[in-house]
Amino acid sequence: DHFLGTKPPGVISFYIVLQRLSNVINPVSTYAERFSRLIVFLSYVMPLITYLTLIPLFVLSKKFFEGGDVWLPLIFYLVFPNTLLQMLELDISLFALLFVIALLFTHKGIETQGFWWAFAAGAIAYICVFFSFSLLMVIPLSLAWIGVEYIFQWHDTSFWHKLKIIGGYVLGLLGLGVLFFAVLQYNPVLRYQNALTMHKEMKLLASGFEQLIDAWILNGIEFTMWAGFPVVVLLVMRTIMSGVAIYQKRTDAIDRLFAAFLPTFVALNVFGQTRSEVGRLWAFFMPLVSIFIAPEALRLFKRKKVAVFFLLGLQLITTFLIFKFQNALTDI
After folding, report:
1. Is 300 exposed, middle or buried (CB count within 10 Å of its CB: 0-12, 13-18, 19+)?
2. Phi-psi bin for 26: left (phi > 0), alpha (psi -120 to 50), beta?
3. Neighbours of 252 (CB within 10 A)
4. In the list 45, 109, 176, 306, which could disulfide-bond 117, CB 3.0-4.6 Å?
5. What is the pTM assigned to this prediction?
C-alpha cells in the first residue's frame, strides 16, 4: 500500500485499535458494514482527540502565562483554520496531542533538571516517531530547547550536570528504540529510508536549488493560509521581539522556547522533503504557535478582550473563506 508505505507502524496500529473498539461498541458482520461503522466512529472520536490536546496545552501554557492569560493559547488553537477544518486528520488530532505531551515532559526535565523526567521525554519522543515521521522534529526541537536553557539559564552549571539532562533524554530515546527492536523487530531507520524513497516517487520530488525554492514558496503560502495570515503576522512580531530580547540578554521562557523553535522550523522547511500539504503535515506545530502568538495578540490593543476578539474574528473569517472557496479552482 503506497499510503502505509510512507508511514511508521503506529498509524495502522491506531486505526486497528479504533476498528476493534468500534466493533465492541456496535458489532456488525459484513466488511461494508464494518467500514461504514468505522467511518462514523472516527467522525466522533477524532474531534474528541483533537480537543484532548487542550489538556496538556493548558498545563504547558501555565509554564509561560499567569492568571487568565493561560487560557489564550487554548482559545487561539481552537480557531486555527486547520484545527477547525481538518480535525479528522491524524496530523491535527493524534499527532498534535503527542507533540504537546512530548514538549510537556521536556519542559518538566528542564524545570526539575531531573534525569528521569528527561529520560521519559526521550521515550515519549520515540513514541511520537513510531506514529509519524513528521514528529521527528520533536527530537531536535527538544534538544535545542534544553541547549538554549543551558546557554541562558544554566551557563554556570557543571559539565556533568548538563550531561545528565541531555544524556537522560538520549538514553530514553535510544532505550525505547532498543526495546521496540527487541520485542517487535522494528527498525525505524530502515522504515524511514523506505518511506522516504516511496514518498519521493509518489510526490515526484526532484533535487536541485530551483525545486527547493519552489517548495519553500509553495509551503510558505500554504502554511500562511491554513494557520491564518493574522497568525503569521504575529509570528513575525514574535521573531522580532525574541530576537531583541536575545540580543539584549533579557529573555523570558517564551523567548527561549522560540529560539529553539525557529531554527527547527527553518530546518524542516529546508530538509523536510515536503512540497505542499503542509497545512496538514505541519499542523502538529499549531499548539506551540498558539503559545507564541498570545503575547503578541495582546499588544494589538490596550484592552485584552478587544485584542482577543479581534484575532478570533479574523481567524473565523479566514476559516470561512477557506471552507467556502477552497475548491474554487477545481469548479472552473
Report:
1. middle
2. beta
3. 14
4. 109
5. 0.91
Q: Vertex 201, ends 196 and 202: CA angle to 5°?
A: 95
**Nearest to residue 212, comparing CAs of 262, 263, 266, 269?**
269
pLDDT in tens, the chain (332 residues): 555 666 889 988 999 999 999 988 888 888 888 888 889 999 999 999 999 999 999 999 999 999 999 999 999 999 999 999 999 899 999 999 999 999 999 999 988 888 999 999 999 999 999 999 989 999 999 999 999 988 888 766 677 777 888 999 999 999 999 999 999 888 888 888 887 777 666 665 556 667 778 778 888 889 999 999 999 999 999 999 999 999 998 899 999 999 999 999 988 887 766 777 888 889 999 999 999 999 999 998 889 999 999 999 999 999 999 998 877 555 55
**Residue 309, all three cell numbers:** 476578539
C-alpha span between 190 and 2 (Å, rounded): 16
Q: Nearest Cα to 168, choosing from 108, 128, 127?
A: 108
Alpha-carbon distance of 236 to 109, in angstroms, equals: 29
Q: Judge contact between 267 and 154, C-beta under 8 A.
A: no
Using CA atoms, how far residue 19 sits from 25, 95, 96, in Å, is 10, 19, 21
**What Å distances lie between residue 323 and 34, 92, 328, CA to CA?**
30, 17, 10
108 near 119, Cβ under 8 Å?
no
CB atoms within 10 A of CB 198: 16
- Residue 109 contacts residue 118 (beta carbons within 8 Å): yes
Residue 162 to residue 279: CA distance in whole angstroms: 36
Q: What are phi and psi of 328, to 5 degrees?
A: -60, -45
The H or E element that residue 122 is part of is helix 115-131
87 phi/psi in degrees, rounded to 5: -70, -5
Calpha distance 284→97 (Å, rounded): 8
Q: How far apart are CA 153 and CA 149, in angstroms?
A: 5
